């Protein structure tokens, strides 16, 4: 049942993003930023955690999850360091995921020979 809930919620998120891409003139980069900011806003209001407990990876894997990770890092850093944590918390929380994406992207480029678009 967990797989079904994750599939349905993740699919709903993807369908909404596809509708945004088809029906608006928003560029994909702006939609990605919108997803990250939506995850941060849901986390700020305490709505992300219950949603993640219901849908699991269906919510945490898309970019909504990255926004939650950043917001959670900022909350933790502000609690520990005060106002300075506002600037450092997101970087610390998102460092592992960002580093992994860069490293695996580089390794994939070595294996699969990327081509330039014409």
Describe, in short, the structure shown.
By secondary structure, the chain is an all-alpha fold. It contains six helices and no strands.
Labels describing this entry:
118 residues; 6 helices; 83% helix
What would you note in describing this structure?
By secondary structure, this protein is mainly alpha-helical. The chain has one domain. The chain is 83% helix and 0% strand. The protein contains six helices and no strands. The chain has helices at 2-23, 28-44, 48-55, 57-60, 63-81, 85-112. Helix 2 (28-44) packs across helix 5 (63-81) and helix 5 packs antiparallel against helix 6. The radius of gyration is 17 Å and the shape is globular. The N and C termini lie far apart (45 Å). The mean pLDDT is 90.
**What is the radius of gyration?**
17 Å
Structural class: mainly alpha
Q: Biggest sheet, in brief?
A: none
Share of helix among residues? over 70%
- Proportion of β residues? under 5%
Q: Count the helices. How many?
A: 6
Q: How far do the termini sit from each other?
A: 45 Å
Count of spatially separate domains: 1
